[in-house]
Amino acid sequence: xxxxxxxxxxxxxxxxxxxxxxxxxxxxxxxxxxxxxxxxxxxxxxxxxxxxxxxxxxxxxxxxxxxxxxxxxxxxxxxxxxxxxxxxxxxxxxxxxxxxxxxxxxxxxxxxxxxxxxxxxxxxxxxxxxxxxxxxxxxxxxxxxxxxxxxxxxxxxxxxxxxxxxxxxxxxxxxxxxxxxxxxxxxxxxxxxxxxxxxxxxxxxxxxxxxxxxxxxxxxxxxxxxxxxxxxxxxxxxxxxxxxxxxxxxxxxxxxxxxxxxxxx
Length: 265
Prior knowledge:
Strands 1, 2, 3, 4, 5, 6, 7, 8, 11, 12, 13, 14, 15 and 16 form a 14-stranded antiparallel sheet that branches. A two-stranded antiparallel ribbon has the order 9-10. Helix content is 9%, strand content 43%. 43% of the residues are buried. It has two helices and 16 strands. By secondary structure, the chain is mostly beta strands. A hairpin with a 3-residue loop joins strand 5 (59-66) and strand 6. It is globular, with a radius of gyration of 17 Å.
């Protein structure tokens, strides 16, 4: 089940079959970046923009306009412990835009929210239902051992200081994207190691290391090197909870069809 806490926005809490509460949240996308523009004051939020959403059979289709520059279409189908999705971005401005990429956020809580919630498979039950407390636990206890990106057929840990993961002195939202741009997936392990929250995309991109402001993870799949005025670019992806280990997830992503187009192109 897909829940939009912000009416008509591309911000979803996803409730999996057999669950009473959401398992993860995903912003499709949180930002659209243009080369040389990374700060949030240069690339305002996209997931807070109201659009028009309608069901087309099993597919939820949303359309919105972002900052007078982009026409965005989001297609979502519930699938295999999560969602399959396609994000299409059209340049509706007059100038060509270099290095266009998405910034996709997936997280294990929605705080503050109406109602607020947290996936306790990933965040210990004693941690208060409060954004900064959960973000700190995520940074100090979850991500040092279990937040990785998938590049060149192998998983790599991405915590900046896994041996001493204190949040003291770390900016809540100060993480910058990597220079590396080869990640097709990222995933975080539950506290018992039995399941993985993941996102994966048909186009590789950069990633953000974890930060203590929120219990979330970010990939930046690249749409296109140059998006001419009037042109459209697309990326296919999947976000969900995988019941299994790291190698099994990699196999499912790379050889199991998660990155094959789910929607007509």
